[in-house]
């Protein structure tokens, strides 16, 4: 029990290695398909980040390069928001009232 592979350095090391590889070889966002500017730094919404194609929460591999892609920070964020909304929809009707609000983009910023 002491050496769970997702808790010790194994995945972290592999993730960092694959992240460097992706940053060195990829130039476009895997979510929106637009170019990623590596001179932009976090927390800018268009800063580069790594997206897990299948989210770890959904059983995706945390450090396999096949499950990792280059993405804009904001695209990655929006994707996880959508996944979260989908989960919330199953739980009740409350999400429906949020949908009638105009300018969902501003609403998200407000929440953040
Ligand atoms: Zn993007």
Strand content: 5-15%
Profile the largest sheet: 2 strands, antiparallel
Total strands: the figure is 2
Residue stretches low in confidence (pLDDT < 50, at least 5 long) are: none
Catalogue the ligands.
zinc ion
Strand arrangement within the widest β-sheet reads: 1-2
Through-space gap between termini: 37 Å
- Domain count: the total is 1
Secondary-structure-derived class: mainly alpha
Which series of helices and strands comes N to C? HEEHHH
Supply Rg: 16 Å
Pfam families: HNH
Keywords: Endonuclease, Hydrolase, Nuclease
GO molecular function, one term: endonuclease activity
Organism: Dorea acetigenes
Summarize the structure.
With 112 residues, the chain is mostly helical. Helices cover 45% and strands 9% of the residues.
Describe the protein in words.
- This protein is mainly α.
- The protein has one domain (9-90).
- It is 45% helix and 9% strand.
- It is built from 4 helices and 2 strands, in the order αββααα.
- Strands 1-2 form a two-stranded antiparallel ribbon.
- The model has no long low-confidence stretch (mean pLDDT 81).
- The chain binds zinc ion (ZN).
